[in-house]
Fold:
Amino acid sequence: MNQINAPLAQLKDIHLPPPVSWWPPAPGWWLIGICLLGIIFGGGYLLWKLFRRGQYRREALATLRQLQHTHQGQEQILLAEVSRLLRQVAICQYGRQEVAALNSTNWLEFLDRTGKTDQFSQGAGKVLGAMLYQPTAAIETEPLCQVAKAWIKGHRQC
Structure:
């Protein structure tokens, strides 16, 4: 019996292979990683472009708030500055060729058309027309600033 068991006693234990390493990853993981990097960089670029595209609006709104604060009680100066600010924003968005030649009624119609409103030709923004050049005109600046703020936030391409 010893002879029968003797060959079994000479056997060694099973040797397991070393554990699978996590590095280097399989080709599929490389592809997924490259795709994820592309999505991250592409999304970041699009967000940056979107942020930059609205930057002129944020600056214009900050300028409007500053004008309201600086020119309290100086209606005529505030009216001229709001008109100048709206023209600058319009030139930034629509170009000098389309905006620079507009005056009085044409200017108010342009603001109405691009702002999808009638507040410039019929409402509080009407003062940006003929009253802009009258030295002693009674002007309500708060409604004017609200209309200007709404136009800066919401104007669209014609």
Q: What stands out?
A: The mean pLDDT is 88.
